[in-house]
Write a structure and sequence with these properties.
The chain is α/β, with parallel strands linked by helices and 256 residues long. The chain is 39% helix and 23% strand. It has a domain at 11-137 and 160-191 and 242-251: Rossmann fold (3-Layer(aba) Sandwich), CATH 3.40.50.150.
């Protein structure tokens, strides 16, 4: 199974610190507009919090993710789960819709994921996805990279896919999608648990990949937060992340 080596998750941290991920999924869930008679694939379901909302519409949903830890939590929620990589799914014309929220920026083989999602749809099926777009967490990434370089980690991977709306629309069209609508949406996001907790949850995997000793994690995250404080900390409200999202809808052509 091909996965991003920087994608590593602690289910408890994700469910608490990352709870905002599902909370901010309302717009793309509305774009999906699930119906009671549909079979829907949730690509990158995480802990299943948002998947449950799709099932509440009466749809039959398959919760798909590359993380065994997060899928275990999704299974505990009573969801039908499947372990695998979004870039090489083996579904063939099985779903009325494919849904994904806050996941596809982790999938470095974007073409493979686009083709897999296209293949998974029945003719006439639709796609509704949202993930990190061009400029997402630019400040956070710059500060973390500066801190890691300071501590001697020079060879830093490009471990996210943050396309522009035009780039992603072209990619979807190249694998066969039609009616593609894509837009980039700046969305500063409040971090209730703080920046250090966000880094621990979402960037822990990068430090694992770089083989940073675990006793240095907190030091690196704290120093990163110190660099970010002038830009992303509001004394009146707290920490914010410089999120930029890309929201996309498309469909698979019907058979003539």
């Amino acid at each position: 199974m091909t996965t991003n080596p920087s994608s590593s998750w602690n289910s408890a941290d994700y469910t608490t610190t990352g709870a905002f991920v599902a909370e901010h999924g309302a717009a793309v869930l509305e774009l999906l507009n699930p119906q009671s008679d549909e079979r829907i694939l949730d690509v990158g379901c995480g802990d299943g919090a948002l998947t449950l909302k799709i099932t509440e519409a009466g749809a039959d949903v398959l919760a798909f993710d590359a993380s065994p830890e997060l899928l275990a939590t999704a299974s505990e929620r009573g969801l039908d789960t499947h372990l695998g990589s979004a870039s090489n799914m083996e579904f063939n014309a099985e779903f009325d819709a494919v849904f994904s929220n806050a996941v596809l920026h982790w999938v470095l083989d974007a073409e493979g994921a686009a083709q897999s999602m296209f293949n998974a749809l029945k003719p006439g099926g639709r796609l509704a996805v949202e993930f990190g777009g061009f400029g997402n967490i630019a400040a956070v990434s710059t500060a973390l990279r500066a801190t890691l370089i300071k501590h001697g980690y020079q060879d830093l991977p490009d471990d996210h896919y943050f396309p522009s709306a035009e780039q992603y629309a072209r990619l979807l069209e190249s694998v066969g999608f039609v009616g593609v609508e894509a837009k980039v949406i700046p969305r500063p996001t409040f971090l209730e648990a703080g920046m250090e907790a966000w880094l621990r949850t979402f960037r822990n995997g990068l430090l694992e990949r770089l083989e940073v000793p675990q006793d240095q994690y907190e030091l690196i995250f704290n120093e990163t937060a110190d660099l970010l404080k002038p830009a992303l900390f509001d004394p009146a409200t707290g920490w914010w992340a410089d999120y930029v999202r890309i929201r996309v809808s498309a469909r698979k052509p019907t058979v003539d």
